[in-house]
Design brief:
It is a single chain. The chain is α+β, with helices and mostly antiparallel strands and 179 residues long. It has a single domain (14-174), classed as Alpha-Beta Plaits, CATH 3.30.70.2690. It is 35% helix and 22% strand. The protein contains five helices and six strands; from the N terminus they run H-H-E-H-E-E-H-E-E-H-E. The protein has helices at residues 9-12, 18-34, 54-69, 105-119, 146-156; strands at residues 37-46, 75-82, 88-97, 124-127, 136-139, 172-174. Strands 1, 2, 3, 4, 5 and 6 form a six-stranded antiparallel β-sheet that branches. Strand 2 and strand 3 form a beta hairpin. Helix 3 (54-69) packs across helix 4. The longest helix has 17 residues, at 18-34. 35% of the residues are buried.
Length: 179
């Protein structure tokens, strides 16, 4: 499983940004290569309307540090989008050590607490099930590709081009690859 590739637009039936899709592949492959079990989940971050752009970086830094201190060895991908109503929101794919966690609950609670502390009231953290599972365990040696395929589908959503056209500045950021 060390050479997984995320699905392209044929799987999700939507146009994809190749640069973001490649970054998603790289982060996911790196993480799966380092952990026998990888827990993959998505979080949508909707900052308060008056939030400044640099606050998402502060949120991300504190949230990832909180996950790191909990022993989860987090890696992440964050994609910024602007909806048709001109509201900025972020999609995050979070990769965690599956030997340490297997539930989304405490990670969503951590994200909610950090968002409140960094940006104050008015922002929300959304659970991303969109008709599919959120919180998928990938066992690197599992011959059944079902969980890997579902996690790939979930992560590749960050590469969709829709709602990225009106983004000024950086569209996405990721954790560093540690190979």
């Amino acid at each position: 499983m060390s050479n997984t590739h995320l699905p392209n637009d044929r799987i999700l039936n939507i146009p994809m940004n190749d640069k973001i899709l490649n970054a998603c592949n790289n982060v996911m492959n790196d993480y799966i290569g380092r952990h026998s079990k990888t827990f993959v989940m998505r979080i949508d971050i909707h900052p308060p309307e008056d939030a400044e752009q640099n606050q998402i970086i502060k949120f991300n830094k504190r949230f990832i540090e909180k996950e790191r201190l909990a022993g989860n060895d987090p890696s992440y991908i964050v994609a910024r989008e602007v909806s048709s109503s001109k509201k900025t929101h972020y999609h995050m794919a979070l990769f965690l050590d599956g030997q340490k966690t297997n539930s989304t609950y405490k990670h969503f609670e951590n994200a909610k607490t950090v968002l409140q502390n960094v940006m104050g009231p008015g922002g929300t953290i959304n659970y991303c099930d969109d008709g599919h599972r959120n919180g998928i365990m990938i066992n690197r040696n599992d011959p059944d590709p079902t969980n890997l395929t579902e996690a790939q589908r979930q992560v590749s959503y960050l590469a969709k081009t829709d709602q990225k056209q009106n983004v000024n500045g950086k569209t996405f950021f990721t954790s560093r690859i540690r190979k």
